[in-house]
Amino acid sequence: MKKIILDPPEIARIITRISHEILEKNRGFKGIALVGIQTGGVFLANRIHQKIQEIDSVSVPLGELDITLYRDDLGLKKVGTPTADVPTIKTTSIPFDLTGLSVVLVDDVLFTGRTIRAAMDGLIDFGRPKQIQLAVLIDRGHRELPIRADFVGKNLPTAHNEKVEVRWKESGDDDYVCVINNEEGNP
């Protein structure tokens, strides 16, 4: 069973709000950079980047980060077992030094916090940020690590047997967020 939570106009309003909140918290655009986590976070970071350009007529540094090799579960699955996945490495492109910047890490869904922990490890390879802030479209709860978002589009309490699915027009779908009841209990 699939239930639509956010449609395109609602997602657009959230992106506008988050963009304003980022500018307000950082007192403008100076000294900030956006880094999207592959894949949905990159789409969201690009949209926030565009919105900040519309608001302040400036372009802040924008990067994308693949956290695959920083995951804490990478070596836990034995190759050859049905649950083993061969990791797919995506693009990482941060063509600027993060040292001294307020980096806004961007992802589509915040769940356990493990992806964000991996992303913070990855960011450090590109410099020492002044601070790291987190912007997410959906915060679904169920944290396993002490991580919270600074900018949240929507808090969406979920059960462990539900899956939050975010679709973007950049990947060939319409923009939407839905919750799917997953009978097996896998998130």
Explain what the structure shows.
- With 187 residues, the chain is of the alpha/beta class.
- The chain has one domain: Rossmann fold (3-Layer(aba) Sandwich), CATH 3.40.50.2020.
- It has three helices and eight strands, in the order βαβαββαββββ.
- The protein has a five-stranded parallel β-sheet.
- α1 crosses α2.
- It starts with a strand and ends in a 6-residue tail after the last strand.
- The relative contact order is 0.20.
What is shown here, in short?
The chain is 25% helix and 27% strand. The chain is built from 3 helices and 8 strands.
Could you list some keywords that capture this structure?
single chain; 5-stranded parallel beta sheet; 3 helices; Rossmann fold; 187 residues; 27% strand
Named CATH topology: Rossmann fold
Shape: globular
User: What is the C-alpha radius of gyration, as a whole number of Å?
Assistant: 17 Å
According to DSSP, the number of beta strands is: 8
Query: Poorly predicted ranges (pLDDT <50, ≥5 residues)?
Result: none
Q: For the record, what CATH class applies?
A: Alpha Beta
Annotate the secondary structure layout.
Elements lengths: L1 E5 L1 H18 L6 E6 L2 H17 L5 E4 L36 E9 L3 H11 L6 E9 L11 E5 L6 E6 L8 E6 L6
Parallel strand pairs: 2-3, 2-4, 4-5, 5-6
Antiparallel strand pairs: 1-8, 7-8
